[in-house]
Specification:
This protein has 412 residues and is of the alpha+beta class. 45% of the residues lie in helices and 11% in strands. It contains 16 helices and nine strands. The strands form two sheets. Strands 1, 2, 3, 4 and 8 form a five-stranded antiparallel β-sheet that branches. A hairpin with a 3-residue loop joins β1 and β2. α1 packs across α15 and α2 runs parallel beside α16. It is globular.
């Protein structure tokens, strides 16, 4: 937890004035260097000291955004959709006389994965706690979701951002994703949701097709990669987290086994041998399941998915008007900056090594007069965002060229 002085109003104002990458954020949201509706009609919401919340702010360019942020000095700010008109003029747009509607039109497809949703399977931390060990759950979620969105939906403009404390956010900026209606967003989330059910429900994975008494339904091909990723991390996860070492842990495991005879056998054995490691318990379960039929083998796959598959906060993704914390904001509880994460190196990411706002200001001070974020450890993360923005701009130019060629052919 950060000391309160690390995120004091004075510290935050220095951060916004000297370090926050407003121009990069502007180009990322605007998808062009010249301001257009994608930025000027975009909603920004500010959380001020004392939890005062200001919604429906909008700006013409990066400088205007910076000026207002420095004037308000928020503890954080969030980004919403591009509306049919400027959010600051919404009352006029909603009036009957104007004949206009105030409605969200475009917005990145966003996802939120929070470590607290893994509290029933991780053993190293609980609640708001997070460490390099339980980050393995987030890392696997990034690998699985990143691959699914690229291979199954064809998206490729994905920006992963550490939340600053115990989770990770994803922003998908492909043109098709930006234009998804709420109904289509719900469909995408539904297709990607595997873990369902509250604490009272033992089995949370029910994704197979029609099954019989002797034969389970097939696992959808869309989940084969997630299954394989889960299997790859399974034994390291068991050795590290010891999910089945405690009695509560192994009893939860046995609730997921459909064969009552196997359950009774292992229950009697494990009750008298409380010190058996999780990986050995799993091997014993596999040995009991062997040659007992496809239904029990499928149950093992479902167990691996239940412990390793991404746990999505579905409500964040379903609505275009949902607000999500802007990248590079500072988390008030930790003082850490919400930095981009490279999905290809997510296993090496350490949430506790992310720079804090105080650390960055000290680096800035050490660099001397005239220094900016380029002279601090923030540079690698801003460079990551700028590289992502460059790829988005390349996509925009390709679409514009394709439209020009099509228009030329139609005119011809």
């Amino acid at each position: 937890m950060a000391d309160s002085t690390e995120t004091s109003p004075e510290v935050m104002l220095q951060f916004y004035r000297m370090l926050y990458p407003f121009k990069s954020i502007f180009t990322w949201l605007n998808q062009e260097h010249t301001p257009k509706d994608l930025f000027t009609n975009r909603e920004f919401a500010f959380t001020l000291q004392g939890d005062v919340y200001l919604r429906y702010n909008c700006f013409s360019n990066a400088d205007e955004l910076k000026k207002q942020v420095c004037a308000l000095n928020p503890t954080r700010f969030e980004i919403g959709p591009m509306y049919s008109s400027r959010p600051s003029e919404r009352k006029l747009a909603r009036s009957v006389k104007s004949g206009k509607l105030f409605t969200p039109l475009k917005r990145e497809l966003v996802f939120d994965i929070d470590m607290t949703d893994y509290d029933d399977v991780r053993t190293c931390c609980t609640s708001a706690g997070i460490c390099k060990r339980c980050w393995a759950f987030i890392a696997n979620a990034v690998r699985v979701l990143d691959s699914a969105l690229r291979t199954q939906f064809g998206y490729h403009q994905l920006l992963w951002v550490y939340s600053g404390r115990r989770g990770i956010h994803l922003w998908v900026s492909d043109d098709e994703a930006m234009g998804l209606t709420d109904e289509l967003r719900r469909a995408v989330v539904g297709a990607l949701t595997v873990i369902e059910g509250g604490k009272e429900m033992a089995k949370k994975v029910n994704v197979r097709g029609i099954s019989t008494k002797s034969r389970p339904g097939e696992l959808p091909p869309s989940l084969w990669h997630a299954r394989d990723q889960g299997k790859e991390m399974w034994y390291p996860l068991l050795d590290d987290q010891e999910c089945f070492l405690s009695e509560d842990g192994w009893r939860t495991l046995l609730k997921l086994v459909p064969d009552k005879k196997i359950v009774e056998t292992l229950e009697k054995r494990w009750e008298t041998q409380p010190g058996i490691k999780s990986s050995k318990k799993w091997d014993e379960l596999k040995a009991e399941v062997k040659d007992t039929g496809a239904r029990n083998l499928a149950a093992l796959e479902d167990i691996i998915l239940q412990y390793t598959y991404p746990r999505l906060d579905a409500e964040v993704s379903k609505h275009r008007n949902h607000l999500l914390k802007a990248p590079f904001c500072v988390h008030p509880k930790t003082g850490r900056v919400c930095v981009p994460v490279d999905p290809n190196r997510v296993d090496h990411f350490d949430p506790n090594a992310v720079p804090t706002v105080m650390q960055l200001l000290q680096e800035l001070d050490k660099a001397g007069e005239g220094a900016n974020w380029e002279h601090t450890s923030l540079k690698q993360y801003v460079d990551m965002l700028d590289g992502h923005v460059a790829r988005i701009l390349d996509d925009v130019r390709r679409r514009e060229r394709a439209k020009a060629v099509l228009q030329h052919d139609l005119n011809w």
